[in-house]
Amino acid sequence: MTYQNILLEKEGRIAILIINRPKALNALNQDTLLEIKAAAMEVEADPEVDVLIITGAGDKSFVAGADIAYMQNLTAVEGRIFGAVGQAAFRFIEAMEKPSIAAVNGFALGGGCELAMCCDFRIASVNARFGQPEVGLGITPGFGGTQRLPRIVGPGMAKQLLYTAEVIDASEALRIGLVNKIVASEDLMDTVKKIARKIASNGQIAVRYSKVAANEGAQTDIDRAMTIEADLFGLCFSTNDQKEGMTAFLEKRKPTFTGK
Ligand code: CAA
Questions:
Q1: Closest ligand 1 atom, CA of 112?
Q2: Could you give all domains of the chain from N- to C-terminal order, each with its CATH number?
């Protein structure tokens, strides 16, 4: 597919989705959200890709939020649809079986923070800035921020950020568990690609089932969650990767996984 507002690149078994509206600090209008969802679906369906990285074009901004100029004159009905489009795109990324990593290279505000949060985890450059500034614009977050932020950093810290519209730097984001690691700006993509390659070197069915178990389990009670884990654990024993992984270990060699 061809895209106007994003770039979708492939490097080995890694796909890199770059939000590419640098003049608006990569802000998200409806077309961009639709393209993000289409690109994520393309990645999920591509047998040659194992891991998705999401980042923003340029070195100033990951995504500075939903596009305020686009939203300014929306009606309530249009606003609801815009929110639903953003939610659907981000929920697809969160629920897709292939893992995703946000490489946060600057402002991740509002919809940008929400995009980073729908990824499995976040690595930040030193200049990354996070926040949900929506209440300062007279709106609530609309692409999942009120739900994912409390789940990631806990309700007290999330509510402080949601109610104050405060923007935090990368060290504070690390301290509260919003990001896993901070690196120099020039090292961001290499660091994230290295992590992606490490993920891609493992048995991919097992990686994807780990994601499904973690996501599904987080939404249910512990007994049902353990059943989900047990079912997926059991299913792994029907794969060639399980045979290869365990045989390779016992033969003291590196496994060659095929994702089958
Ligand atoms: N929407 C539309 N345009 C945006 C934008 C946004 N979210 N963020 C930045 N831009 C545009 C600016 O309007 C400006 O355009 P012009 O050059 O045409 O004037 C350009 O990007 C550069 O921005 P600034 O001049 O403001 O750059 P700065 O370095 O002085 O400030 C910033 C950077 C702190 C990120 C500031 O741009 C800012 O506060 N942006 C808005 C952040 C925000 O409130 N995001 C939340 C949006 S609401 C939301 O996301 C709702 C939701 O949950 C669905």
A1: 50
A2: 6-200 (3.90.226.10), 204-250 (1.10.12.10)
